[in-house]
Structure formats: C-alpha cells, structure tokens
Amino acid sequence: MIRVLLAEDQAMVRGALAALLGLEDDIDVLGAAADGEAAWRELQRLRPDVLVTDIEMPGLSGLELAQRVQRQQLPTRVVIVTTFARPGFLRRALEAGVAGYLLKDAPPEHLAQALRSVHRGGRAIAPELALEAWSEPDPLNERERQVLRLAGDGATAAEIARQLHLSHGTVRNYLSEAISKLGVGNRIEAHRLARQKGWL
C-alpha cells in the first residue's frame, strides 16, 4: 500500500482528492491537513510514504514543507498538486527535492499514476512545464525573495527589518538589488513580476 497524507487548504479540493485516491486499491489516505503547520505535525506523526500538497497554504507553503522534509532527511516523497503552471515554482520545487509536480486541471487518473511512479522512486512532472522550467533562471537569492515577499504584503522597510532581524539599510539594499535584477521601477512591480514568474 502507498500511504498518503494530503495537505490542501481548500476543503472541497481536499475532500475530492481524498475521495479520488480512496477509490484506488493500492493507496491509503492516512489523513488530510488544512494548513502547512498541521501538515508538518501530521507528517512527523504518521510518516507517510507520500505527501500530496498544494503550494500556497496558511502557515507553511508546500515548498517550505518539501524543504523541511529534505532537511530532516525524512523518507516521505513529496508531490505538489497546484494551479500554478509557472516554471519558477517547478524549478524551486525540484531544488527542494519534490518528486512530483502536477497541475490541478490534469486528468484525475494522472494523480494515482504519479503517486505510484513516485513511490517506486521515480519522478512525475507535468510535461508542459518540464522543459520550460530551465529556460529562465531565477535571479533572486533567498534573502531577496524573503524581503520582496514581505514588501509585497505591504510591509515597510522598517517592519521587514524587524521581522527578519536585519538593519534598515540592509533591507533597502536587498530591495534595491531585487528591483535591479528584475529590471523594474519599484518594489511593487518587482513583487508582481517575481510572483508571475513563480520566483516568490
């Protein structure tokens, strides 16, 4: 049996995924979490073979969950199921050790096939994204990404400095660097472009 944990913040989608996978003879859905922190607790408690997660959730994102799994060297394989058909997200997911990346508009049978493939040690990547993922490298470093994400949420440079335990000047430098790398005029445009590319 392939033991699966689901992490999805939308109740209807979470229920549909559980019902869909419940129809498969060789897949056992151990549980489902509505946010990233709950998913992390359940993941440690249940030790599933595969975590099926969305990217954007309250608490921890699917990418952050994958990074934790990788850092802790847990045996759980991670499959992301998302609406984000953005090469930047796929690239970051692969760097975080994700074994599968599927789009929510894919045919339902693809998910069960992907879980079997991943469970056997393979990969399952949406083919329409696989080639594109490496066409445009992400120019931002992790700190620039953090600062830009907070700026996009409306935080001032002083608030970002407090949250990240940095000096005000350092935050301004990171923002300036991100704006320059993305070739835009201000932090709002930088945030918008980075989100559109899947780099945040």
UniProtKB/TrEMBL annotation:
The modification 4-aspartylphosphate is found at residue 54. One of its GO terms (biological process) is regulation of DNA-templated transcription. Gene3D superfamilies: 3.40.50.2300, Winged helix-like DNA-binding domain superfamily/Winged helix DNA-binding domain (1.10.10.10). InterPro entries: CheY-like_superfamily, Sig_transdc_resp-reg_C-effctor, Sig_transdc_resp-reg_receiver, Tscrpt_reg_LuxR_C, WalR-like, WH-like_DNA-bd_sf. Residues 3-119 form the Response regulatory domain. GO terms for molecular function: DNA binding. Residues 133-198 form the HTH luxR-type domain. Keywords: DNA-binding, Phosphoprotein. PANTHER family: TRANSCRIPTIONAL REGULATORY PROTEIN DESR, TWO-COMPONENT RESPONSE REGULATOR. This is LuxR family two-component response regulator. It comes from Pseudoxanthomonas spadix (strain BD-a59). The lineage of its organism: Bacteria, Pseudomonadati, Pseudomonadota, Gammaproteobacteria, Lysobacterales.
